[in-house]
Amino acid sequence: MIVPNQRGYGKSSCPTEITAYGIEHLTGDLVALLNHYGYEKATFIGHDWGANIVWNLALLHPEKVSKIINLALPYMQRGEKPWIEFMEEIFGPDNYFVHFNRQVGVSNAILDENKSQFLGNLFRKNVPLTMPEPGMMMINLAKAEKSLGDPIMSESELAVYVSAFETSGFTGGINWYRNLDLNWHLLADVQPIIQHPTLMIYGEQDIIPKSENLTDFVPNAEVVSLDCGHCIQQEKPEETNKAILKWLEQHNE
C-alpha cells in the first residue's frame, strides 16, 4: 500500500510555479510512484481532490489503473466552458474556486495566518444546514472564532494536519485549483469514458451532490452511500473500510 503526500502538501515537494500543479503532473506523480516501486498497475483510492486525480489518472493513464475507489467527488464530465468561467457564471465571484483564480494570493495569506483555526473549523461534522454567509467560504472559516457542528478529529489528530501545513503552507494546495482551466484545455481530446471497475462512495449529508449520470461515463461503477458528511473516511472509518473490503472481495481478479 502506498499512501503519499501529493505535491504541495506535507513534506512532499512544493514547486513555486502554478503550472507545476496541473493534472498531467498530479497524475504523473502517481505513475512515477508505481514505476518506482515496480508495480505495473494498482487499485487507486481517492477522496475529494484525490478522487479527481484518480478519475483523471484513469483517463490519461488507463493502463496504470486496475480498479477505482472514489469518495465524495463523483466523475465530473468536461463541459462546454472552462471550469472557472462556468463556476463564476453559476456561483459568482465569491465561490472559492473562482476566488482562488481571480484574486491570487489573497486567500493564501489569510489561511497561512490562521492555520489552526481554519483547519479546526473545516474538519467538522453535524454542521447545521443554513444559508451560507456572504463572502468567500474558506476565508470565513479561517476567520471564524466559533466552530459549528462537532469536531471530526481529536486534538492530537488535528495537530498532525496543523503541523503539516506549518511545513507546506496553503499555496501549493490552492495552486491545484488554479490549474482547472488549463486542465480543461488539456483534456479536450481525451476519450471521456472510464471502463475500469469502480466503487463510488457518497456521504448522504455531503453538500456535494450525487452524480445523476455516473454510469453514462463510468459504466462499471457501483454506488454505496453512508450516513455522514463530506469527510467520509474520517466520520465513518469502520463502515468505509467494510464497504471497500466487501467490494474488493467481490471484484477479486
TrEMBL record:
<dbReference type="GO" id="GO:0016787">
    <property type="term" value="F:hydrolase activity"/>
</dbReference>
<dbReference type="InterPro" id="IPR029058">
    <property type="entry name" value="AB_hydrolase_fold"/>
</dbReference>
<feature type="domain" description="AB hydrolase-1">
    <location>
        <begin position="2"/>
        <end position="237"/>
    </location>
</feature>
<dbReference type="Pfam" id="PF00561">
    <property type="entry name" value="Abhydrolase_1"/>
</dbReference>
<protein>
    <submittedName>
        <fullName>Pimeloyl-ACP methyl ester carboxylesterase</fullName>
    </submittedName>
</protein>
<keyword id="KW-0378">Hydrolase</keyword>
<dbReference type="InterPro" id="IPR000073">
    <property type="entry name" value="AB_hydrolase_1"/>
</dbReference>
<dbReference type="InterPro" id="IPR000639">
    <property type="entry name" value="Epox_hydrolase-like"/>
</dbReference>
